[in-house]
């Protein structure tokens, strides 16, 4: 269970880091963002036409997910900064953090419908596999650095 939570946290951190605005990005984040997109293009086998249609939508989805996570983290940070947070404060922050996965799922479902107009059924499957592969690679690199 701890491993699953760690993977989810890392995936959330990667998504958050990778979708930060360019002027606030570190070189590492920019490189990671580019590497993820290159992997998706290659693993899914996107044609030039598909790339032009798909990648802007994919980036938009990532920005929406980033914003959901950013809002939840901001609320949690506010609670942490308070000298004496109330139970209501804790509940609001915990709820916001817990609901990020639900909101991410809703966002992904919305974009899955849009992606299905551009990608084949096989490519939709390969997209999910590429995202998982990217996350696994990042986890193994992180694990190797410890």
Polypeptide structure, described:
This protein has 146 residues and is mainly α. It has one domain. It is built from five helices and no strands. Helix 1 packs across helix 3 (48-81) and helix 2 (27-44) runs antiparallel to helix 5. It starts with a helix and ends with a helix. Mean pLDDT is 84; it is low at 4-10 and 16-23.
Helical residues, percent: over 70%
Total beta strand runs: 0
Low confidence ranges: 4-10, 16-23
Task: Classify the beta-strand content into a percent band.
Answer: under 5%
| Secondary-structure element string | HHHHH
CA gyration radius, whole angstroms: 17 Å
Key traits:
146 residues, 84% helix
What layout of secondary structure does this protein have?
Elements: H1 2-18, H2 27-44, H3 48-81, H4 87-115, H5 121-145
Brief overview, please?
The chain is mostly helical and 146 residues long. Helices cover 84% and strands 0% of the residues.
């Amino acid at each position: 269970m701890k491993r699953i939570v760690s993977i989810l946290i890392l995936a959330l951190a990667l998504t958050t880091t990778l979708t930060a605005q360019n002027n606030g990005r570190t070189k590492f984040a920019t490189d990671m963002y580019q590497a993820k997109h290159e992997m998706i293009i290659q693993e899914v086998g996107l044609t030039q036409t598909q790339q032009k249609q798909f990648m802007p939508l994919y980036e938009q989805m990532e920005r929406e997910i980033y914003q959901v996570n950013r809002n939840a983290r901001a609320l949690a940070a506010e609670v942490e900064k308070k000298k004496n947070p109330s139970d209501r404060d804790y509940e609001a922050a915990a709820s916001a953090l817990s609901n990020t996965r639900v909101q991410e799922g809703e966002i992904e479902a919305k974009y899955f419908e849009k992606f299905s107009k551009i990608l084949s059924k096989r490519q939709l499957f390969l997209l999910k596999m590429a995202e998982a592969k990217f996350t696994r690679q990042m986890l193994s690199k992180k694990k190797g650095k410890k």
